[in-house]
Amino acid sequence: MTTFRHIYKPYFEIRQEPFADGEEAWFWYARCQRARNEGARFRDAVRKDSRPCDPDDIYRYVMTMVRDGDLHREHLRVMAMFGLKDRAPDGREEEEAREARLWDEAMARLDGKLRDKGMVQ
């Protein structure tokens, strides 16, 4: 005789919205980290739409990329500095040209990693 398992669905469906690219994911992580530093707590179960990962997952992927040699200390410095500013460096500005090159390299590599994980469209 066959037995059936009853698995209850949540009373609302959680829609997971992937990131458009690695840059959007990084800025989302930076904003979440800034809010966390200010004392915020995150509870995704309450929201009707969600991201496909936690902010800590983005951090772990970046640190894995550092350990694997895909990102270097200069990439991290630029990512942190402009993540706090909530904007990408402007390559047209002479004093930000080097940072813009490093930013583009880091975001392209992060985009590839997150795309492999299914977090980027």
Q: Could you walk me through the main structural features you see in this protein, from its secondary elements to its overall organization?
A:
The protein has 4 helices and 2 strands. Helix 1 crosses helix 2 (55-67). The protein has helices spanning 22-37, 55-67, 73-85, 97-116; strands spanning 15-16, 49-50. It has a two-stranded parallel sheet. Helix 1 links the parallel strand 1 (15-16) and strand 2.
Task: Offer a quick outline of the entry.
It contains 4 helices and 2 strands. 51% of the residues lie in helices and 3% in strands. α1 packs across α4 (97-116).
Mean pLDDT: 87
Terminal-residue CA separation: 44 Å
Number of strands: 2
- Rg over alpha carbons: 18 Å
Count of alpha and pi helical runs: 4
Q: Could you tell me the strand content as a percent range? A: under 5%
SS content category: mainly alpha
What best-fitting shape do the alpha-carbon axes yield? elongated
Strand order of the largest sheet: 1-2
Features:
121 residues, mainly alpha, 4 helices, 51% helix, elongated
